[in-house]
Amino acid sequence: MKLSSRMVSTSRYPVMIGEEALEQLRKHLTRCRKLKSKLFILTDANTQRFCLPKLITRIPELEEVTMLSIDSGEEVKSLRTAEYLWKELGSQQADRSSLLINLGGGVVTDLGGFVASSFHRGIETVHIPTSLIGQIDAAIGGKTGVNMDVLKNQVGSFWAPKGVYVWPGFLETLPRDQVRSGLAEVAKTALIRDEQFWRWLSRKPVHKILEIPFSDHFWKELLLNTIRIKLEIVRHDPFERNQRKLLNFGHTIGHAIESLALRRETPVLHGDAVAAGMACESFLSVQRTGLDPLQLEAINGWIQQGFGKLPLLQEDESVRMDMMQHDKKNRQQEIRFTLLSRIGQGKINQVCSPDQIRDAFGKYYNL
Ligand SMILES: NC(=O)c1ccc[n+]([C@@H]2O[C@H](COP(=O)([O-])OP(=O)(O)OC[C@H]3O[C@@H](n4cnc5c(N)ncnc54)[C@H](O)[C@@H]3O)[C@@H](O)[C@H]2O)c1
C-alpha cells in the first residue's frame, strides 16, 4: 500500500517520515529558536551516544541546545526521574515558553512527554523517536506516562507533541532484539486493522526482515503503514474511550507477562511479551469472536517463527490473572480484551471468563 504524501498530518501536529524528516525538523527548530525562550534535548545514555551525534551532524545548530540525559532502561521511567528532570529544567531556567525535544525510544518520549505536560503546567515538546517501538507507537498518539513499582504507565497524561520526526536511519544502531520487539507491534497494528498490510508483512519471516537495510524502501513502507493506521485510530478516539482500545490486542495478557517478569527481576522484551499475548489472545479470538482456525494458524505460525515461545509457568497463572484484573483498563472484576473476528478486524471490550483465559494459556503451553 502506498501513501502519496510523506507527511501524515493530524489536526494537531505533523508526523514526518523518511529521509526528509530531519530537514523538516531543522525548519521547525529554526522557527522555535526564534519563538521559544530556551530549547532542551532529552536523551538516554544510548541515544546520547548513538543518535545525538547523527542529529547534530545534520542539524549543527543543536549543539547550542541544553542537554539533559538519563540512564537507559524501563526502570528510569519513574516519578523519581521525572522529579529529577523537573528540577533540572528549573535550575537551567526553563520557563513556560521553553521547548523539550525528546530523542530516544519509548521510555524517553513517554517520560519526556510526561515531564513536558506537567512542568509549569505544560510546555511544548517534540518527539524524535529512535527505536522501532518509539517510531511506530510510543511517539504517536499523545500518551505519556511513568511506571509505579512494577505497574506500567500508572501515572501519565495525554499531551500532544508539536511534531514527530521519524528518521529510519536511527534504527541502524538499535540492537537487533529491539528491532524484533518493535516488529511485534507492527504485526499487531496490521492484525487489528489491515489484512492487506498483514499479508505484505507476513510474507517474510522475521529473521529475513531483520536482514533488510534500513535504507531500503521496505522500512519506509512498514513505517508509513503502521503509523498511518495508528494515526487513523487515535484521530477518531484520542482519549481511548472506544476505538483506540483496538491497539490493546495482545496487551492484556502481554502486560501481565511483562509486569510479572519485571517483578521477578527477569525482564522480558515488550515485543516478546506482546507476541506471547497475541498468540494467547488469538486462541481466545477463536472461542469468543469467531476467528477462523486457519487464520489462527497463520498468525501463530508467524509469531512463533519470529518470537519463539516464552517459558510461561502454569503455576504463575493465578498471579497473571490477578495482574490482568488490576489492569487499569478493566472494570470491576471483568477482564476485557481486544480480540480478532478475522485478520484485519479487531473487536474491543470482549469479556472472557477465567476458564476461557486458562484454556488459552493451556493452548499456548502446548504450542
Ligand atoms: N505512549 C505510548 O502510546 C506507548 C506505546 C508503546 C510503548 N510505549 C512505551 O515505550 C516503552 C518501550 O519503548 P522502547 O522499546 O523504545 O524502549 P526504550 O526507550 O527503553 O528503548 C529500548 C532500548 O534501546 C535503546 N535505544 C533506543 N534507540 C536507540 C538507537 N537508535 N540506537 C541504539 N540504542 C537505542 C534505548 O536506550 C534502550 O536501551 C515502554 O515504556 C512502553 O510502555 C508507549
How are the elements arranged and paired?
Layout: E1 7-9, E2 14-17, H1 21-35, E3 39-44, H2 45-50, H3 52-58, E4 66-70, H4 79-91, E5 99-104, H5 106-118, E6 124-129, H6 132-138, E7 143-148, E8 151-158, E9 164-166, H7 176-193, H8 195-202, H9 206-209, H10 217-236, H11 251-263, H12 270-289, H13 293-307, H14 317-325, E10 335-342, E11 345-352, H15 354-365
Parallel strand pairs: 2-9, 3-4, 3-5, 5-6
Antiparallel strand pairs: 1-2, 7-8, 10-11
The chain binds nicotinamide-adenine-dinucleotide.
The low-confidence parts are 1-7
Q: Helical percent range?
A: 40-55%
H/I helix tally: 15
What's the average pLDDT?
93
Computed over alpha carbons, the radius of gyration is 20 Å
CATH class of the largest domain: Alpha Beta
β content, as a range? 15-25%
**Count of the domains:** 2
How many E-type strands? 11
Distance separating the two termini: 33 Å
The name CATH uses for the topology of the largest domain is: Rossmann fold
Strand order of the largest sheet: 4-3-5-6
**What structural class results from the helix and strand content?**
alpha/beta
In CATH, the architecture of the largest domain is 3-Layer(aba) Sandwich
**Secondary-structure element order, N to C:** EEHEHHEHEHEHEEEHHHHHHHHEEH
Largest sheet: 4 strands, parallel
Shape descriptor reads: globular
Bound molecules: nicotinamide-adenine-dinucleotide
Please, could you describe this protein's structure?
By secondary structure, this protein is of the alpha/beta class. The chain has two domains: 1-239, Rossmann fold (3-Layer(aba) Sandwich); 249-367, Dehydroquinate synthase-like, alpha domain, CATH 1.20.1090. 49% of the residues lie in helices and 17% in strands. The protein contains 15 helices and eleven strands. The protein has helices at 21-35, 45-50, 52-58, 79-91, 106-118, 132-138, 176-193, 195-202, 206-209, 217-236, 251-263, 270-289, 293-307, 317-325, 354-365; strands at residues 7-9, 14-17, 39-44, 66-70, 99-104, 124-129, 143-148, 151-158, 164-166, 335-342, 345-352. The strands form four sheets. Strands 4-3-5-6 form a four-stranded parallel beta sheet. A three-stranded mixed beta sheet has the order 1-2-9, sandwiched between helices. It has a two-stranded antiparallel sheet with strand order 7-8. A hairpin with a 4-residue loop joins strand 1 (7-9) and strand 2 (14-17). Helix 7 packs antiparallel against helix 8. The longest helix is centred in the middle third of the chain and has 20 residues, at 217-236. The radius of gyration is 20 Å and the shape is globular. Mean pLDDT is 93; it is low at 1-7. Bound molecules: nicotinamide-adenine-dinucleotide. Nicotinamide-adenine-dinucleotide binds next to helix 2, helix 5, helix 6, strand 8 and helix 7.
